[in-house]
């Protein structure tokens, strides 16, 4: 049992680290193509060595600790964000074999552990004792908490249709049709909430270079900065995975005669499509004003998702009563 768990953990962690490395390369290449420029192409075939050289550069850089910072908490903040972004994967089924731990309350586990990542960002900005870092962490925490509310309601709406809080049950319930079709308005809102939760453009206000230098991680160098960087791109992959499981059938093949291909292949394909949308939006849309961002979350998306949740509950209840 212990050996099986160790194999499952390594089979999840190692591909994730490689995926983060190559996602940075893919993003730069795709954005370069969209903006009619080359992107990284000097090191290796199509720049394939660039992510590894960037990681080596960060590893060899000298770590600098600000004299005014609370050093124990300052050092623990990036570690906390890295760990919370990692342990969320334990309940996600990334193949037909299931998850590392197939929890009955897997959806609630992913949402709850994801909320813990806020504390690492809060500690990083607060204990840096820098005005720019503190403003950046305040923005980020407010933004992430605001958009977690509609995301939770959307997840519960899908769980009501599946009649389960288990990720594998959510995937199995889409055997006769994807949740994307009956829940397409909530799927659109989900994509917007994911962009805000990930601090991605056009909602990358916590890291607005023209206003806050670099946001909550402005005082970090070397591996401290690298851990925040890995957390951001790993969260992108995680959100794309959750989107695929909720609305696109997860590990299920789109047609029954394609079931001979492994479930991890289909999940990876769907996840790649969602990540491409994130990159596409970044290359296309300008940055929002912060007041507009909070207005969108609290006055637009939250009432819409609440109305959708209630309507979905009424429909499901009536169907079950028939």
Q: What does the average pLDDT come to?
A: 87
Percent in strands: under 5%
* H-E string: HHHHHHHHHHH
Task: Return Rg in Å.
Answer: 20 Å
Count the helices. How many?
11
Q: Report the helical percentage.
A: 55-70%
**How many strands in all?**
0
The poorly predicted ranges are none
Principal-axes geometry comes out as globular
How many angstroms does the end-to-end distance come to? 44 Å
Structural class: mainly alpha
Biggest sheet descriptor = none
Query: What oligomeric assembly is this protein in?
Result: single chain
Name a few traits of the molecule.
mainly alpha, 322 residues
Question: Summed up, what is this model?
Answer:
By secondary structure, the protein is mainly alpha-helical. It has eleven helices and no strands.
Describe the structure.
The protein is 68% helix and 0% strand. It has 11 helices and no strands. The longest helix has 33 residues, at 2-34. It is globular, with a radius of gyration of 20 Å. The model has no long low-confidence stretch (mean pLDDT 87). The chain starts with a helix and ends with a helix. By secondary structure, the protein is mainly alpha-helical. α1 (2-34) crosses α9, α3 runs parallel beside α9 and α4 (106-126) runs antiparallel to α5 (131-162).
Layout of secondary structure:
Blueprint: H1 2-34, H2 50-60, H3 71-87, H4 106-126, H5 131-162, H6 167-172, H7 184-197, H8 209-212, H9 222-247, H10 263-284, H11 290-321
Helix pairs in contact: 1-2, 1-9, 1-10, 2-9, 3-4, 3-9, 4-5, 5-7, 5-11, 7-9, 7-11, 9-10
